[in-house]
Amino acid sequence: MTRYRVVWILFLLALVGALGTQRGLFWAFAGALLMLIIIPILWAWTGVNWLRIRRRTFSKVTQAGQFLEEEFQLANLSALPKLWVEVCDHSTLPEHAASRVLGMLGGNQWRGWRVRTRCMERGRFALGPITVKSGDPLGIYERERRVYNVNALLVYPATYALHDFPLPPTFMPGGEALRRRTHYVTTNAATVRDYVAGDSINRIHWPSSARRQRLTVKEFELDPMSDVWVVVDLQGSAHVSPLALAEADAAQLPALDERAPFQLPAETEEYAISVAASIADYFLQEDRLVGLVAHGKHREVIPAERGERQRTKIMETLAVIRAAGEMPFDRVLQNEVLFLPRGSTVVVITASPDVAWVAGVQRAARSGLRMVAIVLDRASFGSDVGSQDVIAALGQSGAVVRVVRCGDSITEAIGQ
Q1: Distance from C-alpha of 377 to C-alpha of 406, rounded to nearest angstrom
Q2: Whole-model pTM?
Q3: pLDDT at position 146
């Protein structure tokens, strides 16, 4: 717009000179400058109109470390050619380079391009809106038009395949603990009964049906020892987030190579979320009941369930939750864990250096809960305060302890 203002100033000066002197040279100069004002405006206006832009996102849900693919198509609906058109994408997804400058788009023609971006961060992002810009050949005047077409993209945290998971020694609960009937299939068949209309075919017990000469179906019970609760510490002051620029730049390099393995950012928060997602995914694949407890900015509790629907709820929560909580982890254990059913497996994930939360693990283990503690070693993430005292205290807690360090393979660190 600077050139446009200069032309306007020159036009006004020429007009004043023409009115003051009545000379033809000034009138001709003023007329030429007027054309330099009108023609660029019309040229730029036609450049951003009679356009159609289409945006196709192949997936609205992806995962950190995976690639997002989008396809764009810009069509000129008029017979007039477009000298140049700039398409500016205002998506919030980091490193999503979807903007393009297209030159010489002929009449009734279209141009397309595809963008492939590696998702380096979890969270919810906006794809769009888009701004279309164009102008005259001399660059005097530019005009833009915004296309308010925004799609939401949800990026799940990165998960790692766990081949095994450490569990404390089991025990046999007594009384009525195992006598809770359920309407879906579990590993515990309690008894059989006669078939009634509406029963699923896969519940029929064929040996009993052959022996009784009538269809007989199995009834199942919930096993409280199959309940798995993942408890993530999201107190803001408990986490470490290094600010070293060299490490931040190194973390972005794998995005350029599709064959390079994805690396988590060197932050305890991201490691904790990824560990929680991997554990939940592992037990849900084992058809176990999995629940989630996390106190970030808000209290997040997902009751224990099984199936793909439960996996979606847990992943959606872990995708957007942040370490912005104020409640210490020992209070979280006191308020949430001690009220879980006896025999449940509780996996606590924390980077807190406060030894006070270890007492909560000890109380939970004495109350009949099977405790697994996953500690993120703060020293490996650049903190001056290490986790040695916490790890030593956990040795007497009766819990299975695993230590995850920055740069470790989560699969090997947890399953060792």
Answers
A1: 8
A2: 0.81
A3: 93
